[in-house]
Structure formats: C-alpha cells, structure tokens
Amino acid sequence: MEITIEELAKSIIALFIIVDPIGNVPIFMGLTSNMSREERRRTFRTAIIISFVLLNVFALAGQSILSMFNISLHSFKIAGGLLLLIISIKILIHGMWEEKHLPGRSIGVVPIAFPLLVGPGAITLTMVNIQTTGVLTSVISVMVVLFITWLILRAIEPINNSLGETGSVVISRLMAVFIAAIAIEFIASGVRFYVLEGYSPIT
C-alpha cells in the first residue's frame, strides 16, 4: 500500500494515545524509585527495545497469527475493542493503571514493556493497521511513537515533577476517554462487517 501523510499521522496519533507514555510517567517513576538514574535509563532502554520487537512481530506476522488460530480480523477488532474499553474504564475509575511492584531485573520487560507500553490495545491497533494502512505505515508508526516515548522516558524526572499528582491523573483520564473512543470504533467496525456481510467463520 502507498503511504499517505494523513494515514501515517492518524496511525501515529492513535498509537501514541494508547501507549500513553506521559500518563504512565508516575507509574514508571514508582516502579523505578529504588534505581539510580543510570539504572533507570538502562531499564527504560530495555523496555523500548522489547516494545519495538513485540509490536513489529505483530505488525509483520499478525495476519499469520490470526490465521493460525482461525480468527478473522473483524473478530479480533471486536475482542481488542472490548479489552481497550475495559482498560479505559479502569483508568477512568482509578486515574491510572495499577500494577504491583516487581523485582528490578524484570521491570523493564514486565510491566513496563508489557503491558504498560505494549498492551492489548497497542497490539490490536498494530494488527489492524497492518491490514488497513500497510506494513510500511505500521512499522514507521511504531518507530516514531517508541522514539517519542524514549525521549519522554529520558526526561522522566523533570516531566514527573512538572505534572505533579493531579496533572498525571488528569492526563491519564483524558487519554482514557480517547482510548474508549478508539475501542468503540473497533467494536463498531467489526460488528458492522458481520451485520452487513453476514458471519462467515474462517475454515
């Protein structure tokens, strides 16, 4: 597929909203509170690398994964949309994604890379993008969003100080509203296909 600026911009914005690195800043700070600045940066670097690998695996092999389990893209849209909606409601209620504190070595992978940066929402969106906008647009979107996320994590201390507790909660809940809207679009798109085309399971 040919890349268009409009599709690329939409893909980047949607993925950035779901990844939500700014809204997750207080969580990242809490998870790495016992680390030195250098240890924290190493942890975040690991998280970005793992996130990049995970999203690109789903971007490039997403359709094969779906076919392996006999799942249509429209069913995946509905399932992913429901998961996104649940996540957005949880954030709206609690103000943030709640995670238990884990040992230092694993924090960069779990929960920072997965599920905080690359959760069901980001995976769903990436798999949908690969079908609707093409491989190149999807991969570029992942690279741009994760590069911006890396820049934010590099400056996490001053960002956390400037946001404060109230600012973090407000941003998290605002992002949750956008996530809910994206979730509804996914669900509506999948349901609309089955209503108009009729249900036909993959065989």
Provide a descriptive summary of the structure in words:
The longest helix is centred in the C-terminal third of the chain and has 42 residues, at 156-197. This protein is globular. It has one domain (5-197). The protein has helices at 5-19, 25-31, 37-68, 73-94, 104-117, 120-132, 135-154, 156-197. It is 81% helix and 0% strand. Helix 3 (37-68) crosses helix 5 (104-117) and helix 4 packs across helix 8. It is mainly alpha-helical and 203 residues long. It is built from eight helices and no strands.
What keyword list fits this structure?
203 residues; mainly alpha
Q: Termini, distance in Å? A: 27 Å
Strand residue content: under 5%
- Characterize the largest beta sheet: strand count, sense, and whether it forms a barrel: none
Radius of gyration: 17 Å
Low-confidence stretches: none
Quaternary organisation: single chain
Number of helices: 8
How many domains, as an integer? 1
Bulk shape? globular
Overall helicity: over 70%
Number of strands: 0
Topology of this protein?
Blueprint: H1 5-19, H2 25-31, H3 37-68, H4 73-94, H5 104-117, H6 120-132, H7 135-154, H8 156-197
Helix pairs in contact: 1-6, 1-7, 2-8, 3-5, 3-6, 3-7, 4-6, 4-8, 6-7
Short overview:
The chain is mostly helical and 203 residues long. Helix content is 81%, strand content 0%.
